[in-house]
Amino acid sequence: MPSAETYVTYHRKTYPYIDPTQPKLSCAGKNVLVTGGGYGIGKGIARSFAMAKADNVILVGRTKSILDDTKGKLEAEFPATKVHVFAADITNAEAVEELFASATSSLGPIDVVINNAAFLSAIGTLKEANLKDWWRAFEVNVLGTATVTQAFLRTKPEGHKAAVVNINTSVAHYGIFPTYSSYAASKMAALRMTECFQAESPDVRFVSLQPGGVDTDMYAKFHMPEDYAMTDMQLPSDTCVWLASEEADFLSGRFIWTNWDAQELIQRKDKIIADKELTSMLKPIEGDLY
């Protein structure tokens, strides 16, 4: 049984096959929306889509000044891409509905949604936890993701092909992590929820992505060893562009690690589909109620 590190070739930095400047990964003519898009991984993802020549990149976050700063930097570096900002809490359904209505009326349908915004509760045992803080992870990671996705689906024209990448985490499935119960459980809920969304909307490609250990403000809250092998931010950023391409369609409804070599995943395509790999089904126990 392979580990995550041996499933296929394991990268910690980006590599030529997923270079977003390649014509095969061009996002020209596309509208891309990134939540938590003002900083960290979200900012990196927005930059990679600008590198791929997306027509419009929409940044969503709670702090307008941070979004405006990122907008200015991206448009200075990539003048062909227009960057738009919407300050909103993704758990506020009314605000999210308004931003999608505004974006789609002025720009047209959204082609790619990156659900990157997340919340990490204070690390600690349940006995010690402030349950309001503990539950906030579910509000953002589950309800917030569902709120954004619902607004997207409701504004998407019937039959319009699109992609949704939900940024997840290895702790949702990879081992047991005491003191991380809120984050691990909410992210596992988001993973299972995403699989359901895929079954409901076959014209949308839903993929859950583990971005690796990336040097961000959220990562700094984790109690990780100092010698933990980090992942360069460019890798998950470029991976998102590849996942938005038709080449990644066979990964619909699945969970992948950004570290896995894309070309080798394609080579495993038949096995991934036939054996239902990279899903949350309990192996070797399977069942189908319908």
Automatic annotation (TrEMBL):
<dbReference type="InterPro" id="IPR002347">
    <property type="entry name" value="SDR_fam"/>
</dbReference>
<dbReference type="Pfam" id="PF00106">
    <property type="entry name" value="adh_short"/>
</dbReference>
<dbReference type="InterPro" id="IPR020904">
    <property type="entry name" value="Sc_DH/Rdtase_CS"/>
</dbReference>
<comment type="similarity">
    <text>Belongs to the short-chain dehydrogenases/reductases (SDR) family.</text>
</comment>
<protein>
    <submittedName>
        <fullName>Uncharacterized protein</fullName>
    </submittedName>
</protein>
<dbReference type="InterPro" id="IPR036291">
    <property type="entry name" value="NAD(P)-bd_dom_sf"/>
</dbReference>
<keyword id="KW-0560">Oxidoreductase</keyword>
<keyword id="KW-0521">NADP</keyword>
<dbReference type="GO" id="GO:0016491">
    <property type="term" value="F:oxidoreductase activity"/>
</dbReference>
